[in-house]
């Protein structure tokens, strides 16, 4: 029995090999030969279809007169079918990529051909004008034959595609893979994998992303839905799975984290599929490795694109600090909202150049790149006079906390005088809106950077009284992932170098948000402020805070470097263990039309009017004369909540920490 089975398997493999050789020879032949061969095959299919229909009509007992009139009819029908198929472009398609559009072309050609033949037979036959003494082909044969011809013309083209995809699945050792998600993205991914030999992936099955598992037991494109996300560990073990692809755009971060941790335990690789919109824009699917951003517990943000488009469309916009992390993303998102012009201003000429090239690649040609410094009054006057921006997004600032503790005079000149310079220009030249990009470090500031940003907010509030026609606002948010100086790129570099990963304190926590999320909400806050008057401070919903030690441990796990150590170094100058988003004693938060944006009202004792401007002028002079101590003293007078943090070291027993459970 075993020998017979082996001989049958050998015979089957031999036949399959012979078919592959014939197929390869056919594909290597000249295009004209392939087209002619396809036409002959189609003609034979049409004739065969009408023969079957005629046999069916007369139960196999066809009289001589009908055979005599049938063959000219069948040959002419075959010629008509082939001509219409050729006119519809059927013979210009690649067989192994046959799909719905090919089927529609064939349906169009066969419908026209069948209808034409039907009318002709009716006209010349006894039921019509009776132009011939021969027995015409029955009308039922025309209809049944046309349907059979369509089905067989489609089937003969589907075979090469099915054969091609099946052969791809059998080539070499392919990674056995589960796709999490039975929606549109998962199906699109499966189709892409089946048609792409280079992916070296074999789909074992789909995993339903809903706990109810309504799809379990069903088949999608011939692949079974074999379980739910809660059963992934069992499915990996039972089916010998090498990797899992997450193709669920609405999956919560907690769900992604659970899938990832399950796969880590089961030693299966995890990859993530980008959203379908990104896939369509790029024209291909680029799977990416799981990133720490996928695990930080934030849900996707719902952005009111209609209000944003109405806020930006048709207006001239200026972005300062356009070469920085926030400025670049602001420029990208604004360019997609149809501004009349977009002026990008930064002193980083390289950053500006590459940003301009990126926007041009995306089809936006209305960007003007201007190199300069926000502290250069004459340069700003020229820009506002020449381009007359209606909306100004001020993102230019020094943001690195420990560095600014050592460069206090530069922080004051850039963050305070720079903001005063741009905001005053916006008001003087009649801009309709000015949005100051602030930070959570402006709340009860414990460092020079935070104090200068808080003073920048106060300056914007003061100028709103001087220029009532301009709506001034500030937007506060926490750390952004992936920005220059962010902890995540630093951790990634340290892990790639073999460690150690340096964490300042085991209890340090921070709020995190991706750059696109932060920028979308900055624009949303700007859109909310357009209908208000005076000044407004907005706070973005940052979600739950993240312990930096947990972040470091998770990154080590995600990058598969479990032997890397975590080392505690102690707080750096100006750092706090935790940040706040508003001052609970002097500020109140209020809901807005967007659930992720809050408006703050303040009862601060900060100086106002001439007193404020006098302090600002004094500290700018002191900073330019490099009198750091005097400038910081004046800064404290202008920002009463500024209180320098007392540095603390982590506990003596926590100087080094190997990766362990979080």
TrEMBL record:
Domain Polysaccharide biosynthesis protein CapD-like, first and last residues per copy: 317-600
Keyword Ribosomal protein: no
Keywords associated with the record: Membrane, Transmembrane, Transmembrane helix
Residue ranges of the TM segments: 36-58, 70-91, 103-124, 136-159
Secretion signal span: none
InterPro entries per UniProt: NAD(P)-bd_dom_sf, Polysac_CapD-like, Polysaccharide_Synthase-Rel
Family affiliation: Belongs to the polysaccharide synthase family.
Protein name (record): Nucleoside-diphosphate sugar epimerase/dehydratase
Organism: Rubrobacter radiotolerans (Arthrobacter radiotolerans)
